[in-house]
Amino acid sequence: MAEGWAKKLKGDKYNFWSAGIETHGLNPYAVEVMAEAGVDISGHTSDNANDLGVALDVVFTVCGHAHETCPVFSGAPRLIHVDFDDPPKLAKEAKTKEEALGYYRRVRDEIRAFIEHIEEYMA
Q1: Distance in angstroms (rounded) separating the CA atoms of residues 95 and 16
Q2: Which helix or strand (DSSP H or E) is residue 33 part of?
Q3: CATH fold of 2-122, please?
Q4: What is the tens place of the pLDDT at every residue in 22-43?
Q5: Helix (H, G, I), strand (E, B), or coil: what is residue 4?
Q6: pTM value?
Q7: Could you count the other beta carbons within 10 Å of the beta carbon of residue 64?
Q8: Among 18, 41, 67, 86, which has the highest number of CB atoms less than 10 A from its own CB?
Q9: In this predicted model, what pLDDT tens digit does every residue of 49-82 receive, in sequence order?
C-alpha cells in the first residue's frame, strides 16, 4: 500500500521501490482497499529488500518487524521508521470480511497521510 500511495502522490518528485524482509505475494484485501481509493496495485510484486539492486538515499520501514530486521544497504542510506499496524495480523481476528477490510482501510488511510507529508520526515 505504501508503494502505491508513494508513486501516486509523490512519484513525480521521487523514485520509490517497495520491498520486504520476506516475500509473501500481494494481499487481496490490500489490493481491494487501494482500488477503492483509486490506486491500482494489482500489478505490484512482493520483492525482497536484499534483491532490489538499486542505490538508495532513504529507507523507510513501516512496521516493527521490518525495522528490527532491516538489512544493511550499501551507501549507508538514511533509515527512517514509521510504525503502522499490520493489517493481515489484525484481520486474523476479524469475524467478517467487512471487519477485516476495515483494518486495511484504516491503515491505508494512515499510510496516505504519511506519504502526503513525507518531506517532513526527510527534513
Answers
A1: 35
A2: helix 28-36
A3: Rossmann fold (3.40.50)
A4: 777 889 999 999 999 999 999 9
A5: helix
A6: 0.87
A7: 13
A8: 41
A9: 777 778 888 888 887 776 676 666 777 688 888 9
